[in-house]
Amino acid sequence: LEPLKGYRLVRDEVPDGDVVVPFGTMRTARAGSHVTLITWSAMTQVALEAAELAHAQGIDVEVLDLRSLVPLDVDGIAAAVSRTGRAIVLQEAPLTAGFASEVVAAVQEGAFLHLEAPIMRVSGYDLPYPMPLVEDHYVPSVHRVLKAIEQMWYATGEPKYFRHIQKGMDYWIDENGNHKDYELEEYNIDHITPGLGMMTLY
Question: What would the pLDDT profile of 108-136 be if each residue is shown by its tens digit?
Answer without folding.
Answer: 999 999 999 999 999 999 988 877 778 88
